[in-house]
Model the fold of this input.
Amino acid sequence: MRRKKVTLAWISNDSARRASLKKRRLGLMKKMSELTTLCGSKACLIIYSLDESELMAWSSR
Done:
């Protein structure tokens, strides 16, 4: 059984949009961590959000 295709649309509810961004950001960081561990390579991830004043950066050690 496969997943439904996700439709890309603007989330009008501010709190739901922030929660979705937070979940996706954590998922993306986890995937980057797994990839660098499995492949033995180095990587850097920079995420910028208009709602937040700071950049979120992740880099492999």
